[in-house]
Design goal:
The protein is of the alpha+beta class. It folds into 2 domains: 89 residues, Ubiquitin Conjugating Enzyme (Roll); 127 residues, Alpha-Beta Plaits, CATH 3.30.70.100. Helices cover 37% and strands 31% of the residues. It has 6 helices and 11 strands. It has a 5-stranded mixed sheet with strand order 10-5-7-6-11. A hairpin with a 2-residue loop joins strand 6 and strand 7. Helix 1 packs across helix 2 and helix 5 packs across helix 6. It is elongated and about 70 Å long. The N and C termini lie far apart (48 Å). 24% of the residues are buried. Keywords: Cytoplasm, Nucleus. One of its GO terms (cellular component) is nucleus. This is RWD domain-containing protein 3.
């Protein structure tokens, strides 16, 4: 749907909201603002992009791609064509954005310090579609270059991640907004029963995980040993035993 307003005499601005189906395993609501200057279409429109399902960097990449397309339509009406284009190509733009972010992480890896590494501990209530859920978590961790563990012990499900803070933030967005599980009727659903137990900077006494692994533990002692080996005894004591109550 559309909203129009006329800011002074500097042209026309359109606010447009469109839903793009099945991007990042969920529907993405794009909020687009087009400002058409008085001499449009001889002059490019101003474009702003926002979305609760995308990161700020992804929104910037979408805007840049729209401006690239706009240059191809200079001197002809283009807003409708731009909307159709982004509906058809949003998934590709997001994939390119992820690759660029991954390459940037690789280039900066040699200069990044331990001070920039963060840790995240999540608690999940359940997984109905366990195999699909686990595969999704593994893919996100791989794409974002995060290491750590997906841990099962009885009914306890924990996700422990280490990596660049921006990647940690992006993982949280994916976890909250994507359809990762199914409800009681078997319909795809978002994760609504996740708790962020801890989000903190990795300290010198913490050991770095070298990879992301899915592990199952038969006893609480086995799970505790995993934390202790990583120098995370305090983290375990503070957050895990209360989950048994």
């Amino acid at each position: 749907f559309f909203f129009l307003y006329f800011p002074e005499t500097h042209g026309i601005s359109f606010r447009i909201q469109i839903t793009v189906k099945e991007v990042l395993d969920t529907d993405v609501l794009l909020k687009l603002l087009f400002h058409l200057p008085v001499n449009y279409p001889s002059t490019l429109p101003g474009i702003s992009v926002n979305s609760d399902q995308l990161t700020r960097a992804q929104c910037t990449d979408v805007k840049d791609k729209l401006l690239e397309q706009a240059k191809r339509h200079l001197s002809e009406p283009m807003v409708h064509d731009l909307i159709l284009w982004i509906q058809q190509h949003l998934k590709d733009v997001i994939k390119q954005s992820a690759r660029a972010s991954s390459e940037k992480t690789t280039l900066s890896k040699g200069t990044s310090s331990e001070d920039g590494i963060w840790m995240l501990l999540l608690h999940l209530d359940h997984m109905r579609a366990k195999a699909k859920y686990v595969k999704t978590v593994e893919k996100w961790a791989s794409d974002l270059r995060l290491t750590g563990r997906l841990m099962f012990m009885g009914k306890i499900i924990l996700i422990l991640l280490q990596g660049d803070r921006s990647s940690i933030k992006e993982y949280l967005i994916l976890q909250k907004t994507s359809k990762v599980d199914v409800d009681s009727s078997g319909k795809k659903c978002k994760e609504k029963m996740m708790n962020v137990l801890c989000e903190t900077e990795v300290q010198s006494q913490h050991k770095r995980f070298q990879m992301f692994e899915v592990k199952e533990y038969s006893t609480l002692e086995e799970l505790q040993k995993e934390f202790e080996t990583a120098g995370l005894t305090t983290l375990f004591s503070e957050f895990v035993p209360p989950l048994l109550k």
